[in-house]
Design goal:
This is Ig-like domain-containing protein. Helices cover 14% and strands 40% of the residues. It has a four-stranded antiparallel beta sheet, with no helix packed on it. Strand 3 and strand 4 form a beta hairpin. It is mainly beta. The structure holds 2-acetamido-2-deoxy-beta-D-glucopyranose (NAG). 2-acetamido-2-deoxy-beta-D-glucopyranose binds next to strand 7 and strand 8.
């Protein structure tokens, strides 16, 4: 084998070893905001910043998979972004929401608590 071929082969081998190991996803933190009022629209994005597709997105509310309804929708915008929207916010939507993203390298999660504002604040509330 010629030295050139050998070196090229070595480079190829290193490249394969480096890139065959999938990097697990990293997710941009999302926030619901603080002054949330009854009846308003709320939308957050679960955006992958690091890692290779394909990804599987799963949204949880207090540890349970979010099921879509008349007031809650989940849209996978593209292979890196998933959107959770609440069309008409009500007290039943309060909770701890988590987005889990999984690929061949593993999975990551980001969470934020949705806490709707009380219209006539009770000083003893919270
Ligand atoms: C929300 O849920 C996540 C995932 O279960 C957990 O790690 C986090 O501590 C929770 N946050 C709050 C404020 O309860």
């Amino acid at each position: 084998m010629s030295p050139v071929l050998f070196v090229n082969g070595l480079f190829l081998l290193c490249w394969i070893i480096n890139y065959s190991e999938a990097i697990k996803p990293e997710i941009h933190a999302f926030h619901f905001g603080r002054m949330l009022k009854s009846g308003q629209r709320v939308s957050v994005m679960c955006a992958v910043t690091v890692g290779q597709p394909p990804f599987t997105f799963t949204w949880f509310k207090d540890g349970t998979v979010v099921s879509e309804s008349e007031t809650v929708t989940i849209r996978n915008i593209d292979e890196f972004n998933s959107n959770l929207a609440i069309i008409k916010l009500g007290p039943e939507h309060n909770g701890n929401y988590t987005c889990r993203v999984t690929n061949n390298g593993g999975s990551s999660e980001q969470s934020d608590v949705l806490s709707m504002m009380v219209v006539f604040p009770d000083p003893t509330w919270r």
